[in-house]
Automatic annotation (TrEMBL):
Domain of life: Bacteria
InterPro entries according to UniProt: AB_hydrolase_fold (IPR029058), CocE/Ser_esterase (IPR005674), Galactose-bd-like_sf (IPR008979), Xaa-Pro-like_dom (IPR000383), Xaa-Pro_dipept_C (IPR013736), Xaa-Pro_dipeptidyl-ppase/CocE (IPR050585)
GO molecular function: hydrolase activity
Stated name of the protein: CocE/NonD family hydrolase
Keywords associated with the record: Hydrolase
């Protein structure tokens, strides 16, 4: 359809049942017809360009025959009320959907779209099952928003992501709405946020202590969020009963890839799952120091033009009864092959290949004796892994969402030169290997304190010696017996990556990844709640009785 002009209405009010007024910008075709409605509910500034024509192109969605609504959630920007993350999005979302369905230019069918927090607003509304909601499209999101911070005393805490989000995206508007905003002070803290991420204890973070000492930030950091509110925001177990069709989209280098996958796997309604070579903030195909051809245009085996067209095709099917333009439910970008492939399920059906960690006890640095081999060593050995809280291994690449740190692929050779990093390298590959799915590890470790921290990463070693990250994860385990070996079963990450002939596969292991995660202080406490620690030695074991290994899913 050809629209000569789009009608734009700014800050249209809508009153919730409790009297709170939410406001929305509406974009619609310039005629007297009625159309299905697509709505984005967000806590960020809906006036920013990225929400109009960068992430998805609103004019194209209107031209495709939709009313498009961008709505400030409760307590944000033009909307009234008090903002408290996540807790109102279910009920408010239900009422917003039904309001949108009954606008004079709407035909009663509503779809929700958006990424990150506004992906969560979709899932929260869908759990409430508003009758007019016909499809959703949650992108790079989560169903349990506090999962990496309100996760028990002994689990790793993603505090830097929470700090970055609160100071970088939330606090300024909150203070402005209360008429307490000191712009100069806020901007000073934002400009130095990267340095502030290393402050400990994190739960007494000076930027937020200064700006808003009564913020929700401290409820979360001090574990004072009530069990009722936590339960209200946890949606994963509630997704099993939803039948509203959902288009899930993730990025191989997105900080929220794992929770996006968890939501997709829990979802029992009609669903598709797409993963591209994307970060949380960039779907252009650029990811750190790499550019992935075909990552932004002509995506998928069906060569959908771009993410905007993918959304239009998805909603055309469920809101306009048009044929589904895409066949299989799972669509993955294959890194290294620079192409897309479609599958019947996630994870795809693959073969497995185990590679065992081997060392005579000197696997520190990439100059050490660590190897990846096809059989475990006949003798048992261990490599010492130093954890110095005052000199933690720095965060580099992968899926991160913290101030001053880029997401994606980066050269990491200097990190693998550190004495507090264990490195294990395969022989040079004689043929290509396509890793496809979820990579797992089984590690035998011990700790001198009641907490054991393990950061593990897969990387690609090129013939010229340069090494680039593929996937990584971080685990913290409560130790039952100090200095006694135990087996840690973990998932390193999800990928579709071609290791090329002539390259080598490498695993590196550290006991910290800062500032992405809080630091183990080797005294039973971490940098989230304490300041002082001491250096200590963990151990990683190898051998027939301690067969530490990685398990690779290999495309058949």
């Amino acid at each position: 359809m050809k629209i000569e002009k789009i009608i734009v209405e700014k800050n249209i009010p809508f009153e919730l049942s409790d009297g709170t007024v939410l406001r929305s910008d509406v974009f619609r075709p310039n005629d007297n017809n009625k159309y299905p409605t697509l709505m984005l509910r967000l806590p960020y500034n809906k006036e920013e360009k990225r929400y109009y024509d960068e992430y998805l192109e609103v004019p194209r969605m209107v031209e495709a025959g939709y009313v498009v609504i961008l709505q400030d959630v409760r307590g944000r920007f033009a909307s009234d009320g008090e903002f408290y993350p996540f807790i109102h999005e279910g009920k408010d979302g239900y009422e917003a959907v039904e309001w949108a369905a009954n606008l004079p230019y709407a035909n009663g069918k509503v779809g929700l779209f958006g990424m990150s927090y506004h992906g969560y607003t979709q899932l929260a509304a869908a759990v409430e099952n508003p009758p007019s909601l016909k499809a959703i499209a949650p992108v790079m999101t989560m169903a349990e928003p506090w999962a990496d911070i309100l996760n028990g005393d002994s689990a790793a805490k993603g505090v830097a992501k929470f700090q970055t989000w609160t100071l970088g995206s939330i606090i300024e508007d909150q203070l402005k709405k209360r008429e307490q905003l000191d712009s100069t002070k806020v901007q000073k803290y934002q400009a130095t946020m990267q340095e502030w991420l290393h402050y400990r204890p994190a739960d007494e973070w000076p930027p937020m202590k200064d700006l808003d000492p009564n913020s929700f930030f401290f409820d979360v950091m001090h574990n004072k969020v009530s069990s009722e509110l936590i339960e209200r925001t946890q949606l994963l177990d509630k997704l099993h009963s939803i039948q509203i069709p959902a288009l899930f989209i993730g990025g191989w280098f997105d900080a929220l890839l794992e929770p996006t996958i968890a939501a997709y796997q829990a979802y029992k309604g009609p669903a598709q799952f797409w993963v591209g070579p994307w970060t949380h903030e960039d779907m252009s195909g650029h990811a750190g120091e790499r550019y992935f051809e075909g990552g932004a245009e002509q995506i998928g085996c069906d060569e959908v033009a771009d993410p905007t067209e993918l959304h239009i095709k998805w909603f055309d099917h469920w809101l306009k009864d048009k044929p589904m333009a895409v066949d299989k439910p799972v669509h993955l970008y294959l890194m290294g092959q620079e192409k897309w492939a479609a599958f019947g399920q996630w994870p795809p059906v693959t073969a497995t290949n185990e590679l065992f960690l081997s060392s005579n006890g000197s696997s520190q640095t990439r100059r050490g004796d660590g190897e990846l081999v096809e059989q475990p060593m006949l003798k048992d050995t261990k490599s010492e892994l130093l954890l110095d809280p005052d000199n933690p291994v720095p965060t580099r690449g992968g899926g991160v969402l913290i101030a001053g740190n880029g997401s994606g692929v980066f050269e990491i050779g200097d990190i693998q030169d550190r004495e507090d990093v264990l490195v294990y390298t395969s022989s040079v590959l004689r043929e290509d290997i396509h890793i496809l799915g979820t990579v797992k590890a089984s590690l035998w470790v011990s700790s001198p304190s009641t907490l054991c921290d393990i950061s593990i990463r897969l990387s690609d070693v090129e013939p010229n010696g340069k090494v680039f990250n593929i996937i990584d994860t971080f685990y913290r385990e409560k130790v039952k017996a100090v200095d006694q070996p135990f087996c840690l079963e973990l998932e390193i990450g999800h990928t579709a990556y071609l290791l090329k002939k002539g390259h080598s596969l490498r695993v590196d292991i550290a006991a910290s990844n800062a500032p992405l995660y809080d630091i183990n202080l080797n005294n039973g406490r971490t940098s989230k709640t304490s300041k002082f620690g001491k250096p200590a030695i963990e151990n990683v074991y190898h051998g027939v009785n301690f067969p530490s290994r990685i398990i690779l899913p290999i495309e058949k």
